[in-house]
Write a structure and sequence with these properties.
Largest sheet: 5 strands, parallel
Structural class: alpha/beta
Number of helices: 20
Oligomer: single chain
Shape: globular
Strand content: 5-15%
């Protein structure tokens, strides 16, 4: 019997580490002792383990992940018995191995979808039923972190993606598209081993690309997640109770495929989807047309909850972000006026590279952005908790009545953005605005060049207006 330690670094994340859950199932099947912990733990570090598996997530968690690996280096007799996998490990394997002390660790690239990958046997780890017991804080004394989404089946009905988007890691992690995976045996085995789960998280990267979509939808319905058969029964306080269960296509849906094949939206409407996720990554007229049509298809097919990630700081500019957010709130108004119950919730997502030095953190700056603008967006999103809701009045208050007001807002001192009402009431905002509006073209360019790096200490100008404006950032 081997002693196996599974570690997820201490970053905050919504979903449990599915890869480690499958590795746990694999080792327990072989009769090994398995312990799972999130982050660093002194007592576990002081023990000796036959193997330590450390997962990774986004590349901007580089520092946290590297520190975690180094923390456990002496907990094995040989560093080659530390296995590091996950998206960051796959994408930045060479960079990890170049770190002092990590030269001999073992990098697990991509999926564990073949025999003989961890040991010389025929078992395929990726096909294992995930071990839900390791994420149960009532059963795992070393886990104090509660994953926001844990009462769910985590499954794949396809693998890989047909697209090769340059900002996406999927082509590296899952390079081959597999059009169909039968979800029913997986769900049945989870219920048998760990009990029923409320919701269904479908982790596919591009489910709409599958020619077997109709079969996949039928599988979902057969498992109790149809739009008309999604009751989840459970016992509380000795009484049987019922909740609705939902399907979440977690990685989002391909708007272009829905636009080209509108019948796919009708298929999706047969399952209890909440929310329907469609990325709104581009602001060009062609994609806006595609995206808008998809939203109307959702409304026409009675899909009520829609959400989207809006990528910014990539090839876009600030105006593009405002434009896409405004399109969503206007669509919400149009849906309401037309009698549809569909509502769109937006989640602006700042782009971070997945390759090279710029991937090691969140410092990347898009060509059409400056740091003060990014900080301004962050301040707005801090106040909205990262979400832009469906109400037009809320949007206008948070982001401005129009693009010009938005562009002014993101240059404001951050305390005026975050504590909006307080600084409007005490007159600070009006005093700043009066000075800002007096700047001519040249003065405005000078002012923006001075504070564009989001650093305000020791900034000076011979321009009287600019000097007064700068005082708002340093007081």
């Amino acid at each position: 019997m081997r002693r196996i330690l599974l570690i997820e670094p201490s970053y905050r994340n919504k979903y449990p580490p599915l890869g480690l859950m499958k590795i746990s199932a694999y080792h327990k099947m072989l009769g090994d002792e398995v312990v799972f912990c999130k982050g660093t733990n002194l007592s576990l570090r002081q023990e000796k383990w036959d193997r330590i598996y450390i997962t990774s997530l986004f590349t901007f968690y580089w520092n946290t992940t590297i520190k975690t690996i180094k923390y456990y280096l002496k907990s094995v007799d040989n560093t080659k018995h530390i296995f590091v996998g996950g998206p960051m490990a796959t994408i930045m394997a060479e960079e990890i191995l170049a770190q002092k002390g990590l030269e001999e660790i073992t990098i697990l690239r991509g999926l564990l979808n073949k025999p003989n990958m961890l040991d010389e046997n025929e078992h395929i780890v990726d096909n294992m039923v995930p071990d839900y017991s390791i994420i149960d804080t009532t059963k795992n004394d070393y886990l104090t972190y509660n994953y926001p989404v844990s009462d769910a089946f985590f499954i794949h009905s396809t693998r890989g993606c047909i697209r090769k988007c340059e900002f996406c890691a999927v082509p590296k992690i899952e390079p081959n598209f597999k059009k169909y995976v039968d979800i029913k045996p997986n769900i049945e085995n989870v219920i048998k081993q760990f009990g029923d789960r409320r919701d269904l998280m479908i982790m596919d990267n591009n489910i709409l690309a599958s020619p077997d979509l109709e079969q996949i939808v039928q599988d979902i319905i057969d498992c109790g997640f149809g739009v008309n058969n999604n009751d989840y029964k459970y016992i509380k306080d000795g009484k049987e109770r019922t909740k609705k269960r939902y399907v979440d296509f977690n990685q989002g849906l391909d708007a272009r495929l829905l636009y080209e094949h509108p019948e796919k939206m009708e298929l999706l409407s047969r399952v209890a989807v909440k929310p329907l996720r469609i990325a709104f990554d581009h602001a060009d007229d062609e994609f806006v047309k595609i995206y808008t049509r998809c939203m109307w298809l959702a409304a026409e097919n009675n899909i009520k909850d829609v959400s989207n990630y809006i990528l910014f700081n990539f090839e876009d500019e600030p105006n593009d972000l405002y434009k896409r957010l405004e399109i969503n709130v206007l669509l919400n108004t149009q849906f309401e006026n037309a009698g549809y119950r569909t509502r769109i919730w937006s989640f602006p997502m700042r782009f971070s590279p997945i390759f090279g030095e710029e991937a090691k953190g969140r410092k990347f700056l898009g060509k059409k952005w400056v740091r003060k603008q990014l900080r301004g967006i962050q301040c707005i999103l801090n106040a909205t908790h990262g979400v832009v809701g469906p109400k037009h009045a809320f949007f206008k208050k948070a982001f401005g009545e129009n693009i010009d007001e938005f562009n002014k807002l993101i240059w404001m001192p951050e305390k005026y953005i975050i504590y909006r009402n307080e600084n409007i009431e005490n007159g600070n905002t009006d005093r700043w605005n009066e000075l800002f509006c007096q700047l001519d073209t040249n003065s405005l360019a000078e002012f923006k060049s001075l504070i564009g790096d989001n650093v305000f200490v020791d900034k000076r100008s011979d321009n009287r207006l600019i000097s007064k404006l700068l005082s708002h950032y340093t007081e």
